[in-house]
Design brief:
The chain is mainly β. The chain contains 3 helices and 15 strands. It has one domain: Jelly Rolls (Sandwich).
Length: 246
């Protein structure tokens, strides 16, 4: 498996609901591998739009780094999106995956980390505490809560390490090296649609994603039989060469 490579976030872009610029994302770091989201606003996504502005396909890879929330009186949502397409947060036919983590229990939503399938019409969704982004109601449908952090909010001024694995058949989330979410295509009833990685905030400022790297997903290793096949082909070639020389 190839080693992790740093991700340059300077080409990533923001989408927001109901309008873009719902968040203020400031890329930081010498290698542009960190970003600060500083606005308390409506749902906002910061994602890899690709060199042509048509999005990227992240399936088969793992995104890693750290996430932290600076001192704040707020206690709302931080997280990620998977399989995201440009402006899908405002699409009438959305189909992507949302991983969000709420710090405190509030207005009918518990604290904790969860996975939701965002599928359907997002063009007129309510972005208040009674809307689907907050309550995890359709078209933002919660499908799984974290093993250990399902009812535990994040702490302020603490650095959390994360690993997001996204393949055609698996969505897996690790926090501080521990698997918290693991959702398979079999559970979903079909394979996951391709699309980009992205960061997500809703009603939460002072969020930093740092040291972002990407690599081949651990669940897609080089087939174990491949080295044996290659060595076998090499041996056959050597045998043919010896026969020709005899």
């Amino acid at each position: 498996m190839a080693s992790a490579a740093g991700v340059d976030l300077s080409g990533w872009v923001e989408n927001g609901n109901p309008n873009n610029n719902a968040g203020t994302w400031t890329v930081q770091g010498v290698n542009s591998d960190s970003v600060l989201q500083s606005r308390n606003g409506t749902p906002t996504v910061f994602f890899d739009d690709g060199p042509t502005g048509t999005g990227t396909n992240a399936q088969g890879t793992q995104l890693s780094g750290t996430i932290s929330v600076g001192s704040s009186t707020d206690d709302d949502f931080i997280g990620f999106v998977l399989g995201y397409q440009p402006n899908e947060i405002n699409s009438a036919t959305a189909d992507f995956w949302l991983i969000d983590w709420k710090r405190g229990q509030q207005s009918g939503q518990t604290a904790g980390l969860a996975l939701s399938h965002v599928s359907g019409n997002l063009t007129s969704t309510d972005t208040g505490v009674n809307g689907p982004w907050w309550q995890h109601d359709a078209p933002v449908t919660e499908v799984q809560r974290a093993v250990n952090l399902g009812t535990t909010g994040y702490a302020q001024n603490r650095l959390y390490a994360f690993d997001l694995e996204f393949t055609q058949n698996l969505i897996e989330v690790k926090v501080d090296g521990i698997v918290e979410l693991s959702y398979t295509a079999a559970m979903n009833g079909g394979t996951f649609s391709n699309g980009a990685f992205g960061f997500y905030n809703f009603s939460q400022e002072r969020v930093t994603y740092a040291g972002i790297t990407q690599q081949q997903a651990p669940s897609i290793p080089v087939p174990a039989a491949l080295p044996l096949i290659l060595s076998g082909l090499g041996a056959m070639g050597a045998l043919r060469l010896r026969r020709r020389n005899d």
